[in-house]
Design goal:
The protein is built from 21 helices and 27 strands. It is an alpha+beta fold.
Length: 768
């Protein structure tokens, strides 16, 4: 008897080994086809679905992650479909035996034996329900169990289970029917979803809700009877109504979602906040609608959380479905001209280099730098202005002067360092006009730049994917320079302030800057505080300009609406002055340290050891006759019969400005006409035309060239010469014109002191 038992055990073992080897061979010959294509699902930071896309076979098959399978969902499904799921190897032999007996006894199929694993195999490779198909399903079930863990098989089931039409998977059903992720489903909702796949036609969600409720309650009662859930939980679930219907797939943040789909293919959890995204989308759509009558058809907004550096709202256009102005264009990544929005960075760099402080006095007067003659937005000039006034009022000429002194390479280098791609591409072509918008930028790049102002002058590359860390960090400005810029940009006494802004006492304090591109094609307004950076763009994707479009009047109202919505009644503190930043008295007239003759002073921020510490020398002592009609130099000053008086130094460009504006100022009296000492350093300076430049003149309608010179304030008349021939005498600050001959032209200017300067230009007559 004993040898027989040994022989039977050996036979059984050999059979098992043979079957196992056969399984391995078949597994190699007929591999499992488990390459399932899922819908790309883009979610917010909390897991809420923002946007979903159909699979290539036009199915809603949203991948359910293991973390989204709640204990209730798992417990309900396993109890209902396969109680022994965690104990069998993919096929339940007891269930197969019971089903075979019942089917043979009744001469028809009355009981199934499909495990959850077998159902997954059938859903992965659908076939007609035959005995051969059943054998294949069992083989595939063994393959699944060989390759995956039990929880992974359960996950596959949740991803493939059908819910009618083109909806597959629990997550798809949860989102499209209940408008929530599966982990937030109640017991009643979970039970309803668990029974629909058995009869997807007769238990259609939204069409047969009453029948579903009856079946749901039957199963809930079974759950209670078997002790799966408590009486209270089941009673509450049975009382819960079922009012679901088929909803459209969520379609928030379509531009970012499409961008994520191209990069990541399947499930992507972004840093967006669904509630904030919905608010901003609504504000942009409503505001853009009001601008349609003005010919402004589109808008784009991006919001960055300054504390986490995460993008929390992303609106690429006012209406994704609009065909009027390319609604599917992503305005956040489109390359546009930035207008004046780069000026804060420029002034911050100048502060750090020790060139200026907020109270430094600058000249806002006509200039000509190598043939470049910028103008202010309103085509007016302001004369003496402080740096903070120039920035707050977005004056162009002081900015161009600062960039010329700083060097455009330094500004462009900082922009390249902070990932301005088009600037990097065009860096060798860019000139001084870059500070007035003469370059290509994106709203995304500008938002990241301004976020650095909200983060102590440190640039952080924005984060889009939940869980990612900052991949790039650049110190753009020192904390002190950054603080000074923030103080200027947060001053409410500015022309860009929206009407009635101060009527809302709960409006959060922000710093902001506007910009309007050349041709009024782009309106920008970008604001920030400790919490958020909000960047707004308005215009037309077609590039069509609008006569009354501007950053201040068009974009800033939307900026404030968004801040009022996302940061209303904020109790945050404003930025505090860094320890490395100081406060000192400066002369009101120059912004320099007060000198002996300075009578008006004011407080100004500065950086010790870096900011300029020159003492104001704005007044010079001049010897004049008793009637103050003649001035003397040290060479012609008489022994007696004169007095000394202090005069404010007015540079030639400001003298011309005062003359043009008819502004009275105290002139230094003309120099002693009997003095025969001439100083070449004070010779007239011809500022226009520009020396060495070639000028093209219309042959059919020749336009004259204006002759402009700058002289000292004791010069009354100047004498102009063309090719060494006298042209005309004119008051020093009078506008005169000349139509030169073609070719090389020599222009000379001599003042009434005999001092002379020359330039040469080239003139070409062409048909225009």
């Amino acid at each position: 008897m004993r040898p027989r038992l040994i022989s039977f055990a050996k036979y059984t073992a050999l059979t098992a080994v043979a079957l196992f080897l056969l399984f391995l061979l078949l597994n190699l010959c007929f591999p499992l086809h488990d390459n399932i294509q899922y819908s790309t699902v883009v979610t917010d930071k909390k897991g809420n679905v923002l946007h979903a896309f159909l699979t290539p076979d036009q199915k809603w098959r949203m991948k359910t992650e293991l973390r989204e399978i709640s204990p209730t969902l798992k417990k309900t499904l396993v109890y209902k479909e396969d109680k022994f799921f965690y104990y069998h190897p993919g096929v339940n032999p007891i269930a197969i035996g019971r089903a075979a007996f019942m089917n043979l006894f009744h001469l028809k199929r009355t009981s199934g034996a499909s495990t959850i694993t077998m159902q997954v195999a059938r859903m992965m490779e659908p076939r007609h329900r035959t005995y051969v198909s059943k054998v294949i399903e069992m083989f595939r079930a063994f393959q699944l169990e060989w390759r995956y863990s039990k929880d992974e098989i359960l996950q596959l089931y949740f991803n493939l289970v059908p819910y009618g039409s083109n909806i597959e998977g629990v997550k798809s059903a949860s989102v499209l029917f209940f408008q929530k992720p599966p982990q937030k489903l109640s017991l009643a909702e979970v039970t309803a979803l668990s029974i629909v796949p058995n009869r997807p036609s007769s238990l259609r969600m939204g069409g047969h809700n009453d029948v579903i409720v009856q079946e749901r309650n039957k199963w809930l009662k079974r759950f209670e009877d078997d002790g799966l859930f408590s009486h209270k939980d089941v009673a509450d679930a049975m009382d819960e109504p079922l009012t679901v219907s088929r909803h459209s797939s969520p379609a928030f943040a379509p531009h970012l979602s499409l961008r994520m789909k191209r990069e990541y293919k399947e499930n992507v959890q972004t840093t967006l906040d669904l509630n904030m995204q919905m608010k901003v989308e609504k504000l942009v759509a409503d505001y853009s609608q009001t601008q349609q009558i003005r010919g402004i058809k589109n808008a784009a907004v991006i919001v960055i959380d300054n504390r986490s550096h995460e993008v929390v709202a992303y609106v690429g256009s006012a209406d994704w479905h609009s065909t009027a102005d390319g609604g599917q264009v992503d305005g956040i990544r489109a390359i546009r001209q930035p207008g004046s929005t780069l000026k804060p960075l420029l002034y911050g760099l100048c502060i750090d280099k020790g060139m200026i402080t907020p109270k430094t006095v600058m000249y806002d007067v006509p200039i000509n730098i190598g043939g470049y003659t910028p103008e202010n937005f309103d085509q007016k000039f302001n004369g003496y202005v402080t740096m903070e006034y120039a920035l707050a009022n977005s004056l162009n000429i002081p900015a161009v002067k600062c960039l010329n002194e700083l060097g455009k390479e330094r500004l462009i280098g900082k922009l390249i360092e902070t990932d301005f791609k088009q600037v990097k591409k065009d860096q060798n072509k860019l000139g001084l006009s870059v500070i007035l918008g003469g370059c290509g930028v994106t709203l995304e790049e500008m938002a990241a730049l301004y976020s650095s102002f909200g983060c102590g002058g440190i640039y952080y590359k924005p984060i889009y994917i939940k869980g990612d860390t900052v991949s790039k960090r650049v110190q753009l400005l020192s904390p002190s320079a950054n603080f000074m810029i923030n103080e200027i940009l947060s001053n409410p006494a500015r022309p860009e302030l929206p009407f009635s802004w101060e009527s809302s006492e709960h409006t959060p304090r922000i710093a902001w800057k506007t910009g309007t591109s050349y041709g009024r094609k782009d309106a920008w307004s970008i604001g920030f505080n400790h919490d958020y950076t909000v960047a707004v763009w308005l215009g037309n994707f077609s590039g069509q300009g609008v006569s009354d479009l501007s950053g201040a009047n068009t974009a800033t109202p939307l900026l404030f609406k968004i801040f009022n919505s996302i940061d209303y009644n904020s109790t945050q503190d404003w930025y505090r002055m860094p320890k490395a930043c100081g406060i000192r008295l400066v002369c009101t007239e120059t912004g320099m340290l007060p000198g002996d003759k300075c009578t008006n002073t004011q407080m100004d921020y500065f950086i010790p050891g870096i900011s300029p510490n020159k003492v104001c020398d704005n007044y010079q002592e001049i010897a004049v006759d008793p009637r103050e009609q003649i001035s003397y130099c040290r060479y012609c000053m008489p022994d007696n019969g004169y007095k000394k008086k202090y005069y404010r130094i007015v540079p030639p460009e400001m003298q011309r400005f005062f003359e043009d504006k008819r502004v009275d100022y105290e002139h230094v009296p003309p120099h002693n006409p009997e003095c025969d000492r001439v100083f070449r350093a004070d010779a007239p300076r011809i500022s226009y035309p520009v020396n060495g430049i070639e000028y093209f003149i219309d042959k059919n309608n020749p336009e004259p060239l204006q002759l402009i010179c700058q002289v000292t304030n004791d010069v009354k008349d100047v004498y102009w010469y063309v090719n060494d021939k006298f042209y005309r005498k004119a008051p020093a600050r009078e506008k005169i014109f000349v139509v030169p001959s073609e070719g090389t032209v020599k222009l000379s200017c001599t003042d009434d002191k005999g001092r002379n300067s020359n330039i040469r230009i080239k003139v070409r007559y062409v048909k225009i």
